[in-house]
Amino acid sequence: MEHTTQNRLDGKVALVTGGSRGIGKAIAACLAAAGAKVMITSRKADSCEAAVAELSAETGGDLAYEAGNVGRVEDMERVVAATIDTFGAVDILVNNAATNPYAGPVIDADLPRWQKTLDVNLTAPLVWTQACWNAWMRENGGNIVNISSVGAFHTSQILGSYDISKSALLHLTRQLAAELAPGVRVNAVCPGLIKTDFARALWDGGRGDDVAQGYPLKRLGEPEDIAQAVLFLTTDSSSWITGQEIVADGGGEVGFPRV
Ligand SMILES: NC(=O)c1ccc[n+]([C@@H]2O[C@H](COP(=O)([O-])OP(=O)(O)OC[C@H]3O[C@@H](n4cnc5c(N)ncnc54)[C@H](OP(=O)(O)O)[C@@H]3O)[C@@H](O)[C@H]2O)c1
After folding, report:
1. In this prediction, what percent of the chain has a pLDDT beyond 70?
2. Is residue 122 part of a domain?
3. For the chain, what is the domain count?
4. What is the C-alpha separation between 65 and 47, in angstroms, rounded?
5. Cβ distance 231 to 56 under 8 Å?
């Protein structure tokens, strides 16, 4: 048996939602560096434009953007069409964009923010998958990675609504993996605390030091830590893996209890 690295994506086209900053931007960079052509999308066109300019220079790769809100079906249709128009395919979809508009007990959650959480974090990954399946993957095969969270495994005093959406996203991952096989693999990555704007309130000003000490690997995550897990799941190195999640959390899930 020949042992070679298969961590290349030459000739593939990837679409990364929420690709203008944070984890999504690192994923876009990593996939482009591995040879994929990458379309990024987020709500703000100027942020996308800046990210594409930076990542093109950094990776020497072929990147483009089309702005849109993942929660709006008309935006999704335009972004998927632009990906195929620009690069001729959509082989890889990374459902990375998410929202967390409400902090507090689920019992007190107001319906509009509960609904928005589910729309963006759960329904959008399904709808974007349906669009890529119908436009390309049903005929040509493909690969989907959903960005969930270790919050999917726990209860929380403040993040309950968000965590429920991320937990359901893991089951959506399993369901779609069963439905779309053998042509399309569907997997997920569950990050622990990563130093991005999204989670700034949890780590800025030394607030993350305690969390980092609780992680067996003794540091918080960087966007690149998640990007490398996504790269593995999108390449043929993982060609016999579908419907699974990789937990990338500095070992937080296996850390000793604090008491
Ligand atoms: N950071 C963590 O500790 C952590 C932990 C576990 C899981 N995660 C997950 O990792 C993923 C990325 O998070 P992050 O920390 O990288 O967040 P981030 O730094 O805030 O970046 C979020 C990205 O998503 C875009 N975005 C937000 N809402 C959008 C919408 N409705 N439509 C389109 N684009 C949208 C943002 O750009 P625009 O503002 O221009 O739209 C931006 O590009 C999320 O799924 C999050 O739940 C993060």
Report:
1. 98
2. yes
3. 1
4. 10
5. no
Q: What is the 3-state secondary structure (H, E, C) of 197-219?
A: HHHHHHHHHHCCHHHHHHCCCCC
* Cα 5 to ligand 1 centroid, rounded to whole Å: 30
Residue 200 domain-assigned (yes or no): yes
The reply to whether 3 falls in a domain is no
Beta strands in the chain (DSSP E): 13-17, 37-41, 63-65, 92-95, 142-147, 184-191, 245-248
Q: Which atom of ligand 1 is nearest to the CA of 194?
A: 3
- Reply yes or no on whether 162 is catalytic: yes
Q: What is the CATH number of the domain that holds 79?
A: 3.40.50.720
78-113 confidence digits (pLDDT tens): 999 999 999 999 999 999 999 999 999 999 999 999
pLDDT tens for 171-189 read: 999 999 999 999 999 999 9
Ligand 1 centroid to Cα of residue 6, in Å, is 28
Residues near 220 by beta carbon (within 8 Å), at least 6 away in sequence: 192, 193, 194, 195, 203, 208, 211, 212, 250
Q: Residue 83 — left, alpha, or beta (φ > 0 → left; ψ -120 to 50 → alpha)?
A: alpha
Whether residue 55 is contained in a domain is answered as yes
147 lines ligand 1 (CB under 6 A): yes
Q: What is the mean pLDDT of the chain?
A: 96
